[in-house]
Structure formats: C-alpha cells, structure tokens
Amino acid sequence: MNDADVSKQIQQMVNFIRQEAEEKANEISVSAEEEFNIEKLQLVEAEKKKIRQEYERKQKQVEVRKKIEYSMQLNASRIKVLQAQDEVVGSMKEAAAKELLNVNHHHHVYRNLLKELIVQSLLRLKEPSVLLRCRKEDVHSVEHVLDSAAQEYADKANVHPPEIIVDREVYLPPAPSHHNDHEPYW
C-alpha cells in the first residue's frame, strides 16, 4: 500500500471516529436536554404545588377572618337586641310599679287582679292544698275572690278545687308609698 492509500484509510478512520463521536455527543446532548426538561418540569410542578398550598392557606385564613368578623357582628347585634329588650323590660317595670300604687283604689279591678294572681299561682304550684299569704289590708278582698279563683283553677287544670288557707299570722309587707320603693319580697 502506498502512502496515498494509507492516508486515505486513515482519513476514513478519522471521519468514522469523528462521526461516531458526533453521534455520541448528539446522544449525550439529547439525553442531557431530556434530563434538563424533566428536572425543570419537576421543579416547576413542585413550585406550583407550593404556590397552591400557600394560596389554600391564605384562603383559609381569609375564611376564618370572615367567620370571626361575622360572629363579632352577630354578637354586637345580639347585644343591641338584648339592650333594647332590657330597656323595654325596665320601662315596663317602671310603668307597672307606678300602676301598682293606684290599683287598689279601684276595688273591682283590684279584686280581679288578686283572683288572676291566685289562679296563676295555683297553676304554677299544682298542689291540692295551699297556704296563701297576703297583705293585712287585702284579707277581705282575697277571701272575697278565693272561691272563684279556686274554681277557675280547677276548670283550667281539670282537677278538684284545692284547699286554700289564708295565713292570718304572717302577712306580706304593706304597699310602698312611691313606685321606686317596690322591692322583691322573699
């Protein structure tokens, strides 16, 4: 073989090695590109997941704040309602206390009130025998309405009329002189 053939053969070998090297480099490049894209996709997905979790956490915080705010507003409105109710009850107590000072001046109305109070008490107690206490000055009026009150109770409760004994030893305190003097009696 002459130098030209050897040189040609060496050139072919160099070209073949170069081609193999380029193919191998391309394979490595493609493989590296694929691995890069996979890694990039994994990183992007991981960051998306973190962002979603952060968004959900913040959304829950907003919901909790809204619930707290709603609850606070609801409580404030309840307090306003309770205050308004308290004012109405207070004014009703004041008006009732003023009316109580004058109720015993109207004998028919007062006796009817006594009868209704006795019936209401009997309905609450639901006892066959009751000891009734009243003011000393009301004994006559109470005795006057006692039978009708017992009968009305018996009709409403669908029972026999109870035995009602008026206590003549212990009396309730006398009527107050001013509407602000009304205090609970125990």
TrEMBL record:
Top-level taxon of the source organism: Eukaryota
Gene Ontology MF terms: proton-transporting ATPase activity, rotational mechanism
Alphabetically ordered keywords of this record: Ion transport, Transport
GO CC annotations on file: proton-transporting two-sector ATPase complex, catalytic domain
Sequence intervals crossing the membrane: none
InterPro entries: ATPase_E_C, ATPase_V1_Esu
Pfam families referenced in this protein's UniProt entry, alphabetically: vATP-synt_E
Family: Belongs to the V-ATPase E subunit family.
Protein name in UniProt: V-type proton ATPase subunit E
Classification lineage: Eukaryota, Viridiplantae, Streptophyta, Embryophyta, Tracheophyta
